[in-house]
Amino acid sequence: MPELPEVETCKNGITPYLIHKKISSVQIRQSKLRWQVPDNLHEILVNQQILNITRRAKYIILHFHHGYLIIHLGMSGHLKIINDPSIALGKHDHVIFNIDSDISLRYHDPRKFGCILWVQENLNQYKLFKHLGPEPLEQHFNAEYLYKKSRNKNIAIKSLIMDQTVVVGIGNIYANEALFLSFIHPAMPSKLLSMHQCQNLVHYCKNVLINAIKQGGTTLSDFKNVLGKPGYFKQELHIYGKKNLPCIRCHTQIQHIKIGQRSSFFCPQCQTY
DNA sequence: CTGTAGACCTGGAGGC
DNA sequence: TGCCTCCAGGTCTACA
């Protein structure tokens, strides 16, 4: 489920139930995620208060006075707030954070590509964070920046905007969508982008993410959705997954190719270079 | 440094 | 039903 909008929505969904609360216990049922979950997590977190909950790139960060709990959802992870302890644990509910007698947070991740890590150093210096690019919705991600970053780069523009050292949070679906809306071919060598195309692309990257966050936010305002599976937010997709369907703009058949081993969809009429 | 392929892991969909 | 193959929202690591 997780590109930036889903992670943001997830963070916003869990925050009201966790903020300022103390962890009463931690149960690790499966510690082999992308990296080993620290086996002393219970000792680290028991009786500790969650001071804040933030997001950086696709990481959710729980702030404690003595460090940070870093959660990444990988490809298939999600977080559930459970308000009824009698709800049976699922096969892939790997780590359980109990808040008090009736509220707990469950980390669920069938493919185990995510991670749960404990970090005590300055987050900006942390190995996984220090090379991250700017947040896409912040001012620092703008046309001039993208233009500069794309000079002398032969890699496909789609791969460039998915490169988390260039800009964070843009995953495969939204990269496809933003390029379609910008009339840019996903395989176009980055260095060929004009300033005008950079302006369009930055605009639509932000646009697509903002709209998705809005829709996710709507979904999550319903308590049931925080409890149940967040599912995939019904973003109106124009191009992703639409192989062989007509382009909504010109009715040309949408093509499907692999770029950097990732599924890429484009309209051969509208998106050129 | 740049760019690419492989690796991690499970489940669902579709073909036979 | 069952088995096989392919595919999936991410990103680190190894290698040319």
Explain what you see.
There is one protein chain. This protein is an alpha+beta fold and 273 residues long. Helices cover 27% and strands 19% of the residues. The protein is built from seven helices and ten strands. The protein has helices at residues 4-18, 41-45, 143-150, 157-162, 172-181, 195-220, 223-227; strands at residues 25-28, 52-56, 59-64, 67-72, 78-82, 93-98, 104-108, 115-119, 255-259, 262-266. The strands form three sheets. A four-stranded antiparallel beta sheet has the order 1-6-7-5. A hairpin with a 5-residue loop joins strand 6 and strand 7. The longest helix has 26 residues, at 195-220. The protein is elongated and about 60 Å long. 37% of the residues are buried. The model is unreliable at 220-224 (pLDDT under 50). It binds a DNA duplex (16 and 16 nucleotides) through residues 1-3, 6, 34, 58, 72-76, 92, 109-114, 128, 153-155, 159, 162, 164, 171-174, 232, 260-263.
Provide a brief overview of the structure.
The chain contains 7 helices and 10 strands.
What descriptors fit this protein?
273 residues, four-stranded antiparallel beta sheet, single chain, DNA-binding, 19% strand, 7 helices, alpha+beta, elongated
User: Based on helices, strands and strand pairing, what is the structural class?
Assistant: alpha+beta
Q: What can be said about the biggest beta sheet?
A: 4 strands, antiparallel
Please count the helical segments: 7
Number of strands: 10
- The helix/strand series, from N terminus to C terminus, equals HEHEEEEEEEHHHHHEE
